[in-house]
Amino acid sequence: MPECIFCKIINKEIPAEIIYEDEQVMAFKDVNPVAPVHILLIPKKHIATLFDLTTEDSDVIGQLVLTAKKLAVKLGLEEKGFRLVANCKEDGGQTVFHIHFHLVGERFFAWPPG
Predict the structure, then answer these.
(1) Residue 112 confidence (pLDDT)
(2) 3-class state of residue 103 by DSSP
(3) Of 38, 98, 100, 102, which is the active-site residue?
(4) CA-to-CA distance for 40 and 85, rounded, in angstroms?
(5) CA–CA distance from 81 to each of 8, 63, 84, 113 (Å)?
(6) Is position 100 annotated as part of the catalytic site?
(7) Looking at the whole model, is its pTM more than 0.85?
(8) What is the mean pLDDT of the chain?
(9) Which end of the chain is more exposed for a tag (fewer CB within 10 A), N or C?
(10) pLDDT tens, position by position, 2-46
(11) Helix or strand or coil: residue 99?
(12) b/e for 65-78, b at 16 or more Cβ within 10 A?
C-alpha cells in the first residue's frame, strides 16, 4: 500500500477522530474544517485520483456516497442540506492523493465557490 497520510490513518499509524468505519470506508473529522461539520470520507483501498478509478471500484465509490448520506442524516443535515466535494489533481484542489470526499454542512455555501 502506498505511503500516504490517509493510508496511515486507515492503518491506525496516525490518530484521527474516526466517526464511521466499515470494511470498505472510513470517515473522520477534518483537522482543518471549513464548516461546523467537515467530515472526510475515504475508501480503505488506496486510489490516488478519480482518474485512477476502474469499474471494479464502483462499489466502494457507491459506499462512499451512501455513507455520506447516512452521516448527513445522523448529523441532522437533512433539512438545510450539505455539500459533498471531491477534488481531483492539483488544479482541482486535491492535496492528498488518495480519493476522498469532503462532507461539509451547517453553513451556507455559495455557487460558484469563491
Answers:
(1) 86
(2) strand
(3) 100
(4) 10
(5) 31, 19, 10, 16
(6) yes
(7) yes
(8) 95
(9) C
(10) 579 999 999 999 999 999 999 999 999 999 999 999 999 999 999
(11) coil
(12) eebbeebbeebebe
